[in-house]
Design brief:
The structure holds two protein chains of two kinds. Chain A has helices at about 15-25, 40-50, 65-70, 90-95, 110-125, 160-170, 175-185, 195-205, and strands at about 5-10, 30-35, 50-55, 80-85, 100-105, 130-135, 140, 145-150, 150-155, 175, 215-220, 225. By secondary structure, chain A is of the alpha/beta class. A five-stranded parallel beta sheet of chain A has the order 2-1-3-4-5, with helices on both faces. Chain A has a four-stranded antiparallel beta sheet with strand order 6-7-8-9, with no helix packed on it. A three-stranded antiparallel beta sheet of chain A has the order 10-12-11. The model of chain A has no long low-confidence stretch (mean pLDDT about 90). By secondary structure, chain B is an alpha+beta fold. Helix content of chain B is about 55%, strand content about 15%. Chain B has twelve helices and twelve strands. In chain B, the strands form three sheets. Chain B has a five-stranded antiparallel beta sheet with strand order 2-1-5-4-3. In chain B, strands 7-9-10-12-11 form a five-stranded mixed beta sheet. The longest helix of chain B has about 70 residues, at about 270-335. Chain B is elongated. Classes of the chains: A alpha/beta, B alpha+beta. The interface of A and B includes residues 159, 192, 212 and 218 of A.
């Protein structure tokens, strides 16, 4: 180890989960740090300034949401929360107070590493500077406000374009309904999740090959949307 | 006043004290009395009039016959008065008749003087006859009245009995009892039933009158002592209503309260008896209904218990199988010294597959538990069907098999109010089912269409289809089609689908597709989505 690999902090109370994640993360080429409690996790975060934090929402000593809020008081370190299925509201809560993404147990190594890569990329200030976004058949020129599918220009309405570029800005990460409504519709009074769904459907019909089986513009039911990148 | 009551309550120790305040300024019985006066006055007047008419008739025949016939005419009048107007008027008529005969037909005419002593005997006999006729007819009338009253009461009881017998369910029965009491006694009725601690609960029946603390206290006393109390009884007569215990075979099972409008009709003994008979009949019917309900609850509980046991045994089998595979595969991979890389990989893949199966089973168990506990909360939003289909098809649980699924969703479908997470689960379960029970590589097709006020989603496979007669049963928990007997799974998936779809106010059906294979149809009600603003 050269010491230049990204440092991942895992806050998780289950020893077996820690064991599996250590092997997976070290195998993926990351340095690794672990804490079995929320308090210890906060201490380690202050002390070592990790590049990404993996946070289990079901900690014994403190509420995952509280920990998120306390962490966000002083730090922008990307946080990926880990939770079980059926706790959609917990996930949304954590995302809305500043978590970057989530993983639902059980998950595989490839999924874990993909999420960590996305989180690291978003933390890198240089990555946001590129005005050209390319994904599969899509090519988006953010400076010229041009959207091409298979080199053919596609016309998007201003709101569709705004929604699309918001997702591009968060590419690979989940974006909650609440976040999208705030960023795209801004101050419009009475903007509803309904608008979001209708505009997402329009985007899919204009950009996706098979709108009922979207490759990139994916829905995370009960949470929000994700512009999925190719692994 | 207050301090006396306080002292009394303080000093009463374990004795319950119910404070009932009296209502000054009301005199029950007055209206009844006034009505009693007006009607007889008219009768006496008519009695006098009848004697007058008799006099006219007698005058017409007097010159052709003798006094005996004249007396007959008057006796006829007395008889008429006695039968129509009762004893009092008939006495008056007798008196007036004697006077009229004396005055008009006995010499010297137009005086009350009597010269012939025989006439005094005639008058005495006439008077006696009048009194006897009056008494006799009065007795007959009283008997007729009694019989009519008895008949009315019998009829009322019979009607109550019939209506109570028609209602097997205790709440409906109580309502019908209250309605009968209300109609029969021109009053508001209420039936109070105790909770598990023996405290009476004020009912929520629309006809019921509201009970304040005091009235509830009286009712509670009636329930505890199984004796009537309240208005018109010796116990706690200051209450607004009369309360009767509903006596079952082992003590009171409830209390019937009757709040009169004006004077209680049950002030008379026969009406009071009728009210008590009403209470008794209601009690009998209510006890019968409560026992029957208890019985069916017990039966249902036994059924649930049996189902739970079956579920447990099925689940424990389904849990052990993948766990066995995982343990075996992993320990073989760990402990076999010269294992080829390919063999090791094979073992790990099977462990992974079984782990996924385990995950699905546990998820289903959690879902069915939540559904049955009734803790499932719907977070409905207006959602395009396409989005839910897309989310289900992107689920990694489907793995490589996802390639077999074809979705044909028209673009112009209306939005549906549904819970995105739960409906995705329904679709996933249906698709998963279709993949499991159809030959490898055959397509599974998802379609959607709107018709009238509903939207239908279909999942169709090209498997063996559903055995005849199983179309309903496969949605029951643990029930699995014949084809499923040899395959893993606890038979929960479709039961979950049905639970979720039903919670949405929709319907799920299984049919055999005309071209072969099974088809599952989910029909959801369509509402009116809020309008979308035009993008300007």
């Amino acid at each position: 180890m050269t010491g230049s690999e990204p440092l991942i902090l895992l806050v998780e109370d289950e020893p077996q989960m820690r064991r599996f994640l250590r092997v997976a993360l070290e195998g993926g080429g990351y340095r690794y740090l672990e804490a079995p409690t929320g308090q210890e996790g906060l201490n380690l975060a202050v002390q070592y300034r990790p590049d990404v934090i993996l946070l289990d929402l079901g900690l014994p000593d403190m509420d995952g949401l509280d920990l998120m809020i306390r962490l966000r008081e002083w730090s922008r370190i990307p946080v990926i929360v880990i939770s079980a299925r059926g706790q959609e509201s917990d996930k949304v809560g954590a995302l809305d107070v500043g978590a970057d993404d989530y993983l639902t147990k059980p998950f595989g190594t490839s999924e874990l590493l993909a999420r960590v890569r996305v989180a690291l990329r978003h933390a890198d200030p240089q990555s946001a500077a590129d005005p050209i976004f390319v994904l599969g058949r899509w090519r988006v020129d953010l400076a010229k406000r041009l959207v091409l599918v298979d080199d053919q220009e596609v016309h998007l309405t201003p709101l569709e374009y705004k929604l699309f570029t918001t997702l591009i800005r968060h590419a690979g990460k989940v974006v909650t309904q609440h976040q999208l409504l705030k960023e795209v519709w801004g101050g419009v009074a009475g903007a509803q999740p309904l608008y979001l769904r209708v505009y997402m459907a329009q985007l899919r019909h204009k950009l996706e090959e098979e709108p009922s089986r979207p490759r990139h513009l994916q829905t995370e039911p009960g949470v929000g949307y994700r512009l999925k990148l190719d692994d | 006043m207050g301090s006396t009551v306080d002292a009394l309550i303080r000093g009463s120790g374990t004795i319950d004290v119910y404070v009932i305040s009296g209502e000054p300024g009301r005199e029950p019985g007055m209206p009844l009395l006034r009505r009693g006066i007006t009607s007889p006055a008219r009768n006496y007047l008519l009695a006098a009039l009848t004697v007058g008419i008799a006099s006219l008739l007698a005058n017409l025949i007097f010159h052709r016959t003798d006094l005996a016939d004249v007396v007959m005419v008057y006796l006829l009048g007395i008889l008429l008065v006695a039968t129509r107007f009762g004893r009092g008027p008939s006495f008056l008529a007798s008196l007036l008749s004697v006077a009229a005969v004396d005055f008009l037909f006995v010499p010297p005419y137009f005086t009350f003087a009597v010269t012939d002593f025989r006439h005094v005997g005639t008058f005495a006999v006439m008077m006696l006859l009048g009194v006897v006729i009056g008494n006799l007819t009065e007795r007959i009338r009283a008997q007729a009245r009694l019989a009519r009253g008895r008949e009315q009461r019998t009829h009322a009881l019979y009607r109550l009995g019939q209506e109570l017998a028609r209602n097997a369910e205790s709440t409906a029965l109580v309502v019908s009892a209250i309605q009968n009491v209300t109609n029969q006694f021109q009053s508001q009725g209420v039936v109070l039933q105790p909770d598990e601690h023996g405290r009476l609960q004020a009912p929520a029946h629309p006809l019921a009158f509201p009970l304040n603390e005091q009235e509830l206290g009286v009712a509670q006393w009636v329930f505890d002592h199984a004796e009537p109390a309240g208005l018109g009884t010796p116990t706690l007569p200051g209450a607004r209503a009369t309360y009767l215990p509903l006596k079952g075979s082992s003590g009171a099972i409830g209390v019937m309260g009757v709040l009169p409008q004006g004077t209680p009709r049950w002030a008379e003994p026969d009406q009071r008896q009728l009210l008590e008979a009403f209470a008794n009949q209601t009690a009998l019917a209510l006890e019968r209904a409560l026992l029957a309900e208890q019985g069916s609850r017990d039966r249902r509980r036994a059924d649930e218990e049996r189902l739970r046991n079956a579920l447990l045994s099925s689940v424990s089998h389904d849990l052990r199988t993948p766990l066995g595979v995982i343990t075996g595969a992993v320990s073989t991979a760990l402990e076999t010294p010269d294992l080829s890389e390919a063999a090791r990989r094979d073992l790990l893949i099977s462990a992974q597959e079984e782990a996924q199966r385990l995950h699905r089973l546990v998820s289903n168990l959690l879902d069915i538990t939540r559904l049955e506990a009734g803790s499932l909360e719907l977070h409905t939003e207006w959602i395009p069907v396409e989005e839910v289909v897309g989310a289900a098809l992107n689920r990694r649980e489907l793995g490589a098999e996802a390639a077999r699924i074809h979705a044909e969703i028209p673009e112009d479908l209306p939005l549906v109010a549904m819970d995105a997470v739960l409906m995705e689960q329904v679709l996933l379960n249906l698709v998963d089912n279709a993949i499991k029970y159809s030959p490898k590589g055959t397509p599974v097709v998802i379609k959607a269409w709107a018709a009238g006020k509903s939207l239908t989603l279909s999942v169709t496979d090209q498997g063996p289809g559903i055995a005849p007669g199983e179309e309903e049963r496969i949605f029951e928990k643990l029930a699995r089609g014949e084809a499923a007997a040899s395959r893993p799974g606890a038979g929960l998936g479709l039961a979950i689908c049905k639970g979720i779809v039903t919670a949405h106010g929709g319907r799920i059906q299984a049919v055999n597709h005309p071209q072969g294979g099974a088809q599952f149809l989910v029909t959801l009600p369509l509402g009116t989505a809020p309008p979308m603003p035009e993008e300007g």
